Amino acid sequence: MRTSIARLVTLALLVAACSPSEAAESTSTTSTSTTSSTTTSTSSTTSTLAPPETSLINGLPVADPTLMDRRVLAVKIDNHPLARPQSGIDQADMVMEMLVEGITRFITVWHESDSEYLGPNRSGRPTDANLLPAFNEPTFTISGAQGWVQNMITGNGVNLIKELSTGTFRISDRRAPHNLYVNTVALRETADEREYPDLPPEGPIWEFGAMPQTATPAASVTMHFGTNTVVWDWDETERLWLRTADGREGMVRDEEGEETRIGVPVMVALYANQYSVNGLPSSEVTGSGEAYVFANGRYVAGTWEREELTDWFTLTDADGKMIEVPAGKVWVSLVSANRDLEIAPETTE
Fold first, then answer.
1. What is the pLDDT along the chain (349 residues), one digit of tens a residue?
2. Pairing relationship of beta strands 180-182 and 216-217 according to DSSP bridges
3. Cβ neighbours of residue 95 closer than 8 Å, sequence gap 6 or more
4. Which residue ranges make up each domain of the chain?
């Protein structure tokens, strides 16, 4: 039996309790005995515990630091109404959402995390080829793509694993093409067998830090992707942005059939010009555009810049200062530069 998917409530607790800024420190003297949540004094020695290793993708503490010294694995995820609820996406280090043909699809990003029941898996698009080179020759799993799209992806230094490879499988309770699932642990073994590069990202992709107290309150964020409308509502109790898509609560379903709400503590929205490549919708992900970072029921607005495909997005505020992204599972949305994003202010009750 594959491992079941952990609950998003657990994620909220992790974010609340395991911030990288909460490094444990112990100081002691011979004459004082003091106990607190972080300090205990019992002897004449003084020791400082090293801060925990933190994810290069989302800034969260990593339980097994050895997992950081390996490749990034990306998996394309279906978002057709018949593909919902998806499975396993809540365990990804980061999720990116972008427009395809009238709807959106996701890229889930896996570095120190894995899922044995992830899907549905779908085909690649030109935007993927221009986003993923920033992860240092990652491995990308798709159900297929037109030949020229595959050439575009591999030509940009991204290694492909496609349908029918070890680590992909069909589930019986959905119809094709919405029934292809993957096991990321097995996909990593496939990448090893093919001798794909096993290189970690070259450094943290964001400048991680706390949301400033001056950030603007927000109760909800609405994003329009073609015919899809996605609303994220801030839940103060869960400390998560909760997803609603096309008027229905966004859910994830584990292998046992249990469903939980999609919720994330941190969101990054990037305005991207939309264009077409051989009839396929694409998002322009180099150059610059407006950017928003959402966390703790607040947001900061600024600008993103990205010069090369091997770079990641640099975020700066109106004063030219770096915008820090709070630690937490991150959901990145590439929204149309036609300002298809609406922010509702804090509710007053």
1. 443 333 333 434 344 334 433 333 333 333 333 333 333 333 334 445 556 799 999 999 999 999 999 999 999 999 999 999 999 999 999 999 999 998 999 999 999 999 999 999 999 999 999 999 999 999 999 999 999 999 999 999 999 999 988 999 999 999 999 999 999 999 999 999 999 999 999 999 999 999 999 999 999 999 999 888 999 999 999 999 999 999 999 999 999 999 999 999 999 999 999 999 999 999 999 999 999 999 999 999 999 999 999 999 999 999 999 999 999 999 999 999 987 899 999 764 5
2. unpaired
3. 77, 89, 106, 107, 108, 109, 264, 329, 330, 331, 332
4. 23-50, 65-193, 216-344
User: Domain 216-344, CATH 3.40.309.10 — does that match?
Assistant: no
pTM: 0.85
CB 184 within 8 A of CB 118: yes
The answer regarding whether domain 65-193 maps to CATH 3.50.90.10 reads yes
